[in-house]
Amino acid sequence: MGSLKKKMVVFAVACILSVAPYALALAKDGMQYPTGFRRFDHVKSMIVEPGFIFNGQDLGAMVPGLHHIYANKTAMEGYRALNAKGETVFKEGSRIVFDLWQTADVVSGGKIVVEDHRLAVAVMEKDSAKFSATGGWGFQIFDPLTKQPLLDAQAQANCFQCHTSTSGSDFVFSRLRK
Q1: Read out DSSP for 4-46?
Q2: Distance CA 86, CA 89 (A)
């Protein structure tokens, strides 16, 4: 994935997470915690570190850690079309999940980076009727322990605002790994 695309993915996640602490404890959007999402197809993983600057902000400081992206079968069709054609519209029912983890270093002669604890589970869900005000996508972040939604309508609109900077990808930053 190109440098700009990597920056866009990180920017999207940062937009989502930057508003989470200020959001209401319960959202009224009807989005549910994505139980079983780790059985979805794996889109990609990346480690984001402090010092990653995008649009003048240290996004790596805002959302550092290990980011896993998963997609349900419907969303995977959109990702495959996006990789093949360079643009796409994801179908209704597409669900994309960002599983965000704090990392830890294990040192024993060398170093490995491991998942330490889950920070959040963020979801994009395509339902054009339900989420018409945000490009057909619902945006939600779930507390990793309680599985309760954290974003209110204003925070979701802020997420969407960040996603409007995408082009030809139906507001989706991430790309399927090659």
Answers
A1: HHHHHHHHHHHHHHHHGGGS-SS-SS-----TTGGGSEEEEEE
A2: 11
| CB-CB contact of 82 with 169 (8 Å) | yes
35 CA to centre of own chain: 16
* Spatial separation of the C-alpha atoms in residues 142 and 20, rounded to whole Å: 9
* Cross-strand partners of 66: 47, 101
Instruction: Name, in order, each residue with C-beta under 8 angstroms of 147's C-beta and a sequence gap of 6 or more.
Output: 33, 121
CATH superfamily of 3-163: Cytochrome P460 (3.50.70.20)
Q: What is the pLDDT of residues 20-38, one digit of tens each?
A: 443 333 446 789 999 999 9
* Among the listed residues 113, 115, 77, 109, the one whose alpha carbon sits nearest the alpha carbon of residue 96: 77
- List the single range of 21-30, 41-50, 68-77, 97-106 with lowest mean pLDDT: 21-30
Q: Which residue has the tokens 């989502």?
A: 16
Going from the C-alpha of 82 to that of each of 1, 108, 138, the distances in angstroms are 13, 41, 20
DSSP conformation class of 90: P
Q: What is the predicted pLDDT for the residue at 162?
A: 84
Question: What is the helix (H) or strand (E) element at residue 156, kind and residue range?
Answer: helix 153-163
Residue at token pair 């309760």: 148
Domain ranges of the chain: 3-163
